[in-house]
Design brief:
Layout: H1 10-22, H2 52-57, E1 59-63, E2 75-76, E3 82-83, H3 91-94, H4 99-108, H5 116-125, E4 130-136, H6 165-176, E5 179-185, H7 200-218, E6 222-226, H8 237-250, E7 255-256, E8 289-293, H9 310-322, E9 326-331, H10 341-355, E10 378-383, E11 386-391, E12 401-404, E13 410-416, E14 423-427, E15 431-436, E16 446-453, E17 466-471, E18 482-486, E19 490-494, E20 507-516, E21 522-529, E22 533-538, E23 541-546, E24 563-570, E25 576-585, E26 589-597, E27 600-604, E28 610-612
Parallel strand pairs: 1-4, 1-9, 4-5, 5-6, 6-7, 8-9
Antiparallel strand pairs: 2-3, 10-11, 11-16, 12-15, 13-16, 14-15, 17-18, 17-20, 19-26, 20-25, 20-28, 21-24, 21-26, 22-23, 22-25, 26-27
Helix pairs in contact: 5-6, 5-10, 7-8, 9-10
Length: about 625
């Protein structure tokens, strides 16, 4: 998953973030009426203050509760036959139910046992720091008293009409110091205007009205918009391109996931959402949050008792964190609104590991290391100058744990968290041999903390960005129509925007050029994110070259990544020549340029390290 932003010194990171904000292009905030000159990018979620809470929290609770829960995962037809889909929350379409049958069950739905305070206390005890609640799933049933329609918990259920579950969750999360996020299913089985393309605009207006109720009424920190799903859902890219900017207008600080368009593109939202997948390498180009259910289905199913053991869940969290990402663990409350006892027990066990022996240091605010390869015996995370080796397979007495170095650094001290046992570290140059002298402190994972020193890091320079030239044709032909200095290359023009008002949407080309300096002498990974043709050269060496649209040659954990990588060794204190070219001819347009090194967290290259062509 995405690399940790914690490899610089805190002071250098803070200064770079401030410089990035101060030098952000004027068009970085979406205009009320998108058109030429509009950039839909808000900031860089790898470094922005807006996303800091999410990057730090690492572990969240997903709650799937809705009218579908009333079925408890099984529907019995009049002839006695049953339907038990693999996704209980999709029982309506999976079992081919009529609207009348679904509404009949919705009227009986009564989650009277939902205790927001108890659920949030459980999440906190589990070490989870944010809660994502399904305000509306794809059945269209609203779990708050919406004024848009009557298909909601207040007006079509047996539930207490004086209660508001989301308001109760908001109060509980604030009381216990957790953050609240809301899920909204974009496609809708119940709304008659959704399925008909001719009337879809009417549905979109109602959808906007509901999103406004949620964002302005409950003030969630994040909106988990879900336009993905079945291939016949009907949700289009154009629909998502309307909704995401609307959410940004409602709350500029709101975090949004990448499913607005249904394609789970790396060009959407603030982070990507691999589902039931733990990447074996850092996800490149965008922050990531793995969502996974504690058992086999998202919504409650009375017959699904195959809950993952706490040891597996804890190790999933460690794996996600070690790849620089978040872990969103789902639980489906039952039809009474209660967390199943087996799920609660496992959450409690996970929390006991996190909160015992100082293990939380390996999770909160930590991320990928970049300095070592992933070991076979566990995972390694990093927070500033500390490495946390979470050891799943504890070595026999006198045996060593080996770590393969990806870059030079030294270890100044080592200890086992929660133990006084001595630990010796032998550095062979390309490997570390870590030898504990006692037994493991926990069968799930025992954590060895290593204090490290790395080569000196230069402070950010006085750069202002790169010379940017833009053409009204896709071939860099003729004189550029616009020449300026761009503080960074962080653009998502989509279908309606473009680099400048003078440049029409849909067809254009661009060149950014100048010099780049680096914080530390190291091998740098340059990351270009775009659906279009891109060419990047550094010191005359072509690192990325593609004069045609991408063929997704760099496989990521979700489709449509449009990510290309190039690596080169660069020396600190030297101005290196850099040129980036972008060619766009119809369709979605975007161009982002990020960097990373063993000592530097992945991020959009800040202006402080860039200077325009002389």
């Amino acid at each position: 998953m995405s690399r940790s932003p914690h490899r610089w010194s805190a002071a250098a990171l803070a200064l770079a973030a401030v410089l990035t904000v101060l030098s952000a292009p004027a068009q970085a905030r979406p205009a009320a009426q998108p058109g030429p000159g509009t950039n839909f990018v808000v900031d860089d979620p790898f470094t922005s203050l807006r996303a800091r809470w999410w990057r730090t929290d690492r572990f969240g609770l997903f709650l799937h509760l809705g009218a579908y829960t009333q079925f408890e995962g099984v529907h019995t037809f009049p002839d006695g036959s049953t339907c038990e889909p693999d996704h209980a929350e999709h029982i309506w379409n999976k079992c081919g139910l009529s609207t009348e049958v679904y509404e009949e069950h919705a009227r009986k739905f009564n989650p009277a046992g939902f205790d927001a305070d108890a659920i949030v206390r459980l999440a906190k005890a589990a070490g989870q720091r944010y809660v994502v609640f399904t305000a509306k799933h794809h059945d269209g049933y609203a779990m708050w008293p919406t004024k848009v329609n009557t298909f909601n918990l207040r007006e079509m259920s047996a539930f207490d009409r004086t209660r508001d579950l989301i308001a109760e969750l908001k109060q509980a999360t604030e009381k216990h110091g957790l953050d609240l996020a809301l899920y909204y299913g974009a496609w809708d089985l119940h709304d008659p205007d959704y399925a008909d393309p001719a009337t879809r605009p009417k549905y979109l207006e109602r959808m906007k009205a509901q999103l406004k109720e949620l964002v302005t009424g409950y003030r969630p920190k994040m909106l988990w918009l879900d336009g993905s799903g079945r291939s016949n859902s009907g949700w289009t890219e154009q629909d998502g391109l309307v909704i995401e900017p609307y959410l940004r207008e409602l709350d500029p600080k709101l975090l949004i996931n990448n499913r607005a368009r249904g394609t789970q593109s790396y060009l959407d939202g603030d982070f990507t959402t691999p589902e039931n997948t733990l990447p074996d390498q850092p996800v490149t180009g965008v922050p990531a949050e793995t969502c996974m259910s504690i058992n086999g289905t998202w919504g409650y199913s009375k017959n699904d008792t195959d809950f993952k053991p706490a040891s597996e869940l804890t190790r999933h969290l460690l794996t996600a964190t070690s790849q620089g990402g978040n872990y969103l663990l789902n639980v489906g409350p039952d039809a009474n609104g209660r967390i199943p006892a087996a799920a609660a027990a496992r959450l409690t066990e996970v929390g006991q590991w996190i909160q015992g022996k100082g293990h939380s240091r390996a999770i909160y605010g930590a991320g990928g290391t970049g300095l070592v390869a992933r070991p076979a015996w566990g995972t390694v995370t990093r927070a500033e100058n500390l490495l946390y080796a979470a050891v799943r397979d504890w070595p026999a007495a006198g045996s060593a744990l080996e770590l393969t170095k990806a870059a030079p650094f030294s270890v100044t001290s080592a200890r086992v968290l929660g133990s006084a046992q001595p630990v010796t570290v032998t550095d062979t140059g390309d490997r570390l041999r870590i030898t504990p002298t006692g037994k493991q402190t926990n069968p799930i994972a025992t954590v060895v903390e290593l204090t490290i020193e790395q080569p000196a890091t230069s402070q950010p320079g006085d750069g202002t960005g790169l010379t940017a030239e833009f053409w009204t044709n896709p071939d860099l032909h003729g004189a550029p129509a616009v020449t300026r200095t761009d503080p960074s290359v962080n653009y998502d023009w989509r279908l309606l925007g473009s680099p400048a008002p003078e440049i029409p949407a849909g067809t254009h080309s661009a060149r950014w050029s100048g010099t780049i300096t680096v914080p530390t002498t190291a091998t740098y990974e340059f990351i270009a994110v775009s659906p279009d043709a891109v060419r990047l050269t550094v010191n005359g060496t072509e690192l990325i070259g593609a004069q045609t649209r991408y063929e997704k040659s760099y496989k990521q954990t979700v489709p449509n990544s449009y990510v290309r990588l190039g690596r080169i060794h660069l020396t600190a204190g030297t101005a290196h020549q850099i040129t980036l070219e972008h060619k766009q001819n119809s369709g979605i347009a975007a161009m982002k340029l990020l960097w990373a090194s063993p000592y530097l967290g992945q991020q959009v290259i800040p202006a402080a390290w860039l200077k325009p062509r002389g």
